[in-house]
Specification:
This protein is α+β, with helices and mostly antiparallel strands and about 300 residues long. It is built from 13 helices and ten strands. This is Initiator RepB protein.
Amino acid sequence: MQEKSPKTILQDNAITSARYEMSALEKNIIYIMMAQLKKEDRADVIYYVSVRELMDRTGTRNSYEDLKRATETLIGRVLQIKRPNGNLLQVSMISSAEYLHGQGIIEIGLDPKIRPFFFDLKQNFTAFQLHMALSLDSKYAKRIYEMLSQYKDMGMFKIELMELKRRLLLYDEKTGEEQYKNWSDFEKRILLTAKKEINEKTDLTIDYKATKVGRKFSDIIFSIKISKGTQVKIDFRDDSAAVFGRLVNEFRLRKDQAILVVERFSLQEINKALYDIRLKMSGNEVKNLGAYTAKVFGLL
């Protein structure tokens, strides 16, 4: 039997190089959502994040209030993306978040303005492993890992120090406010932390050196090597939230019906039934998909 490859997120370079800030928890919610994205998704598709899956995959424990604050903040997070034509796009990646009462599931709406950056990848994109991104604790390590993953085949990545700070929102050009002005503080709190986590937990082994103009540090040059033996088998298809999403998005059940299916049946039973329904559909034996799916699961 052929082994399943690890789930890979494809992320447009414009997002990788955008200037924004997210907490580690916010980033993890985005990662779980991104794992469900498909090119064929309709513009109005809703994605579902399982709170249990989120905590299990990250080894963290978050309260309802933690999650509510994270999604509330995410809706207000603005990504600033420079278009090739010179335009500046300011957009939030999430347009809405709804908590399904008693289900441990968060319903996530994706802003249509950001959707093309994930699906119209063309030639330029960043690929990185979801489980590795989730394993990183520092929000800055997560961002730097994304940036370096974009250049891992080249083996190096050079960036101006101030541009890195801009991307991490450690420097505001409008106000001139800069965090970690002292190089030793920046290196200790950002670079060394990111290097340690990335080298220990991901498929990359990285190092860096800083160059100066006069007495002032100006650029950072990262060296990047792809580590061997770091691939981990992982499957996101059998999580209850992902199955719930399939029932609603693909098989046209109402949310209350999907909740009953997830409560009454095992994931194995659900997946087998959905496979059988797909076969019936391919033979043009199903006229009303939602009604037929509800009938299969004894809801009508």
